[in-house]
């Protein structure tokens, strides 16, 4: 029964399209904070994701410059690499790391992969993205052929500016990164989703499957998360839960929610009721 239900949802849906690439899964998983490579691999397998994101600046070097143990240990015939610029505090740093990420993508055989998750975070306490640095770096990277997915606060105007300069998706946070606070500014997220003509991927702050499902129910194109899986008691189990939550939220969005009413309405018809 479950398999039939999933098949039905896909018959109503279409793939997640980012720039010139299509993906079946709307779940994107980060690869930081896991205990070890084995735990990372198990969580990726249970998540059924197509895209994973790797912090290029923090990757541990292995065989030669530009490759990491994590990158060596994953099957890139089945996964799409989304390099990210985590750890960069200025636009200039982020641009340099974006180029390194693109080089790594080509080394693993993804020669057409120009994707970059753009993060510019100059605030060490709250880890909120720098809007000016992000916009500056995005303009440069778009001009130089990158498929830019910028990580931003839930700012509808900044989201629109980034879309206008050619970003291929917008990635507003649900709440501060790693906090697990869920969707703290849902009205702004809804405004961003309503006005965007590119995919909107809710990124950061998701703590559990119901929150991921809620993001999809309001119309997000996808959800990216990391800490909620990596720091769960059983990460691989949480990875599967997140996958199912995202799928159910997407199904609910496609199905269309019933209208809310001020008063109760009986479920059974009152016409023809038998009275004693």
How many helices? The count is: 10
- Note poorly predicted spans: 61-67
CATH topology-level fold name: TIM Barrel
CATH class: Alpha Beta
Primary descriptors:
276 residues, alpha/beta, TIM Barrel, five-stranded parallel β-sheet, 10 helices, 39% helix
Structure in a nutshell:
The protein is an alpha/beta fold. It has helices spanning 2-12, 37-47, 69-72, 91-107, 131-143, 156-164, 186-195, 209-217, 227-230, 235-255, and strands at 16-18, 21-23, 27-30, 51-55, 80-84, 115-118, 147-152, 171-172, 201-203, 222-225. The strands form three sheets. The chain has a five-stranded parallel β-sheet with strand order 5-4-3-10-9.
Please characterize this protein's 3D structure.
The chain is α/β, with parallel strands linked by helices and 276 residues long. The chain has one domain (24-255): Aldolase class I (TIM Barrel, Alpha-Beta Barrel), CATH 3.20.20.70. It is built from 10 helices and 10 strands. It has helices at residues 2-12, 37-47, 69-72, 91-107, 131-143, 156-164, 186-195, 209-217, 227-230, 235-255; strands spanning 16-18, 21-23, 27-30, 51-55, 80-84, 115-118, 147-152, 171-172, 201-203, 222-225. Helix 6 packs parallel to helix 7 (186-195).
């Amino acid at each position: 029964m479950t398999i039939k239900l999933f098949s039905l949802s896909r018959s109503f849906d279409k793939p997640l399209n980012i720039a010139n690439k299509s993906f079946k899964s709307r779940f994107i998983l980060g690869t930081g904070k896991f205990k070890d490579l084995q735990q990372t691999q198990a969580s990726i397998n249970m998540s059924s994701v197509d895209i994973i994101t790797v912090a290029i600046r923090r990757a541990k070097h292995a065989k030669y410059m530009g490759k990491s143990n994590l990158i060596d240990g994953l099957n890139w015939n089945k996964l799409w690499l989304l390099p990210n610029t985590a750890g960069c505090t200025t636009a200039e740093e982020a641009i340099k790391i974006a180029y390194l990420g693109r080089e790594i993508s080509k080394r693993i055989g993804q020669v057409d992969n120009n994707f970059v998750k753009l993060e510019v975070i100059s605030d060490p306490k709250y880890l909120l993205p720098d809007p000016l640095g992000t916009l500056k770096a995005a303009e440069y990277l778009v001009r130089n052929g990158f498929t830019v997915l910028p990580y931003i606060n839930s700012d509808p105007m900044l989201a629109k500016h980034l879309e206008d300069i050619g970003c291929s998706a917008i990635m507003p946070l649900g709440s501060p990164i790693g906090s697990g606070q869920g969707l703290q500014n849902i009205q702004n997220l809804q405004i961003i989703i309503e006005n965007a003509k590119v995919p909107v991927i809710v990124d950061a702050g998701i703590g559990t499957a119901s929150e991921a499902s809620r993001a999809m129910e309001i119309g997000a194109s996808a959800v990216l998360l990391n800490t909620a899986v990596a720091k769960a008691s059983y990460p691989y189990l949480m990875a599967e839960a997140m996958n199912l939550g995202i799928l159910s939220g997407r199904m609910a969005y496609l199905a269309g929610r019933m209208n809310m009413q001020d008063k109760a309405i009986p479920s059974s018809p009152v016409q023809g009721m038998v009275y004693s």
